[in-house]
Design goal:
With 184 residues, the chain is an alpha/beta fold. It has eight helices and eight strands. Helix 2 (56-65) packs parallel to helix 4 (88-95) and helix 2 (56-65) packs across helix 8. The model has no long low-confidence stretch (mean pLDDT 95).
Length: 184
Amino acid sequence: VFHLPSDRIAVIYHGPSPGMFPERNDLKFQEVQARLHIPAGPFVLFVGGAEPRKNHTVLFEAFARFPRLATSLSLVAIGEVQSRGASLIETARTLGIMDSVCCPGYVSSEDLRILYSHAEGFVFPSLYEGFGIPLLDAMACGAPIITGPGSALPEVAGDAAIYVDPHDPEQLGMEIERLVSDRV
């Protein structure tokens, strides 16, 4: 449009959401944990709700296929509990992992920052993202990341993520186990 040579053009990407930074305040976490009914113990975080393209089903299937995950971790799924015919609760019930899944719905940015900061990892098996702000927010808060290799996700996360096939719950489960065991 402006007839500029490409060497004079630089792409400046989004930054994380305002206020996203690591906050390992145990008292704040305990308050958020109690208010949102998040079980005690380690957890992995998913942000995207039941929106089908966010692909919660493969993550829930990974938990169902790897009993060690479901017994040693909680899965905290943030976002709309029902969307476009999909339901976080129904998926967890169908797969028999209701005791391992916590679905508090939408949460404030401050609560999300606390959850990112205390999560064992952030799992984002999205099938398509225009950009991937949740990845930036998780990284800004120090959460290790597992995501898929599609759309803009590798551009956002670069070398800072573990990449899995977002259609393969077996591979995802193995990588979650590896991530958690590496953090111990």
